[in-house]
Amino acid sequence: MNAEQIRAGVDALAEREPGFAAALGRVGYPGPRQRERGYATLLRTIVGQQVSVASADAVWRKLEAVVGDLTDPSTVARATDEQLREAGLSRQKAGYARSLADEVMSGRLPLHALPDDDEEAIAALTRVKGIGRWSAEIYLLFAEGRPDIWPAGDLAVQIEVGRILGHETRPTEKQVRELAEAWRPHRGAAAIFAWHHYNSDMAVI
Questions:
Q1: Cβ proximity of 134 and 158 under 8 Å
Q2: How far, in Å, CA of 103 to CA of 129, rounded?
Q3: Cα 128 vs. chain centroid, distance in angstroms?
Q4: Cβ-proximal residues to 139 (8 Å cutoff; 6+ apart), any chain
Q5: For residue 58, what are the CA distances in angstroms to 30, 71, 76, 86, 89?
Q6: What is the secondary structure of 164-203 as a DSSP string?
Q7: What DSSP character marks residue 139?
Q8: 21, 112, 135, 141: which could form a disulfide with 149 (CB 3.0–4.6 Å)?
Q9: How many contiguous H segments (helices) and E segments (strands) does the chain have?
């Protein structure tokens, strides 16, 4: 989603929920967080699992130096286990990376022709080893700009939804999913705003 679409979505949320209106007054509108559509973004998601952003960046640079063009799945498919380990991938992540490359190269995962239905697209992505629901939702939200994706399993989203709505404790993933039903079709904007609120120094309630 671009800045205009996010702004429109947040405005719609603020009209429906007084908590969002108050939070918008505190922290303002979030900017866009777009990523490139395609294989490389999903591969980077795998590389970044359970490590810091700095560590993921370092591994990504080394992987590119060792195997070559990371926008081309055949480079990972051709790489040896030793090369992937040299670049800093664990055995598990190397397996995930190979699985992704195979799914894309075989055409079983058509990243430029995923189903229009969000749940069907999530199901297609999560068939890849190492891509869970959260990773699939993040890809669809940021790389495809789908406006109603709702990553309710994200801890920061749960924390900030609770804070914005005035809950005493962090709501569960199930509760966050239920709460957000009323925010369709703007749940993607709600997630982006929640992260923005989480990272803002002005988010004092």
A1: no
A2: 10
A3: 15
A4: 35, 41, 42, 45, 125
A5: 28, 17, 17, 12, 11
A6: HHT-SSPPPHHHHHHHHGGGTT-HHHHHHHHHHHHT-TT-
A7: H
A8: 141
A9: 12, 0
Distance CA 113, CA 95 (A): 24
Give per-residue pLDDT as tens, 135-189.
999 999 999 999 999 999 999 999 999 999 999 999 999 999 999 999 999 999 9
State which amino acid sits at residue 17: E
Please name the residue that has the structure tokens 């190397």: 94
Say which residue the tokens 């992540």 belong to: 93
What's the pLDDT tens digit per position in 25-66? 999 999 998 899 999 999 999 998 888 889 999 999 999 999
**Residue 63 identity (one-letter amino acid):** L
